[in-house]
FAD-binding oxidoreductase (Albidovulum marisflavi), 348 residues
Amino acid sequence: MAIAEVTVMGGGIFGLAIAWECCRRGAAVRLIERERIGAGSSGGIVGALAPHVPEQWNPKKQFQLESLLMAEAFWQGVSRAGGVDPGYGRLGRLQPVGDDAALALAQERGRGAEDLWRGQAVWRLVRGDAHHGWAPESATGWLIEDTLSARLHPRRASQALVAAIRANGGAVEIDAAAEPDGRVVWATGAPGLDDLSAAFGRAVGAGVKGQAALFACDAAGRPQLFADGLHVVPHSDGTVAVGSTSEREFEDGRAVDDRLQPLIDKVRILCPALARAPLLERWAGVRPRSKSRAPMLGGWPGRDGHFIANGGFKIGFGMAPKVAEVMADLVLEGRDAIPAGFRVEDNL
């Protein structure tokens, strides 16, 4: 086999997105996945691409904003290249407003969005009855609506990236024994954080288990919801995903257990359309959370030609377009545009 210019280790969203971006720029790319595409949290069902609140602005929030604004063009390019629909749709998000204090805060955040989002999206208040039968009841009669939130289907998005990489001449291999060559990007998710902790002699992060549920409900044109800690995401295929739990302590990261049932019970009360919707799937997986809670990006200290992209946690799909851009800049061009707080060294 010819030596790859770039080898990406890991078939989760960061690995796939970086491999695609390097491939799109003309690099010879080989992606190696030890088990299966989306073996970790990238094989989930939720796919909520939602922004941070527009206040107390920082580099992490700016990075995510740029990524969410890039997302439509990014996923359109992926779909055109490989012919697989990732299920992307920028349909916004609704959140009920519980009391007068929350209403005042929402108004303040709306003003913040005007300044920080610069007309590329809005954060506003709408009457609750505008989405009757879909959105939860709001104690104040108002809902927060933002037009920046989007959704995609994680499994379809992962397969769309595989198809795009292969269509552009890249290799995607499922091989537990394959070894990398060339410049190497380690995007190995929660197991990779354990490996990095061992390599650096200190904890750089850990896996956090999440559980989610998938319902049969045709709400394809509806905005996603965020209410009482739950993300409710209508997909284009006639399903609605609801997630998720966050569990630091667990024995089996892939085992669905009794901590999911309260989520199912809660959403049937909160969302009228799901009250009697058939339950199609219960899902569990482990998400990689870095010590800094931000993505962990950059060169591997002490290993020339090796790079790290990990720690997507709950925002991996939303961050992926921008992560792919800055990592391709670094790996292919030696140009370091990784913001403060995202660097590997920030977790050491």
Q: What stands out?
A: The chain has two domains: 6-86+153-206+291-347, 93-147. The first helix runs from residue 13 to 24. The mean pLDDT is 96. The first strand starts at residue 6 and ends at 9.
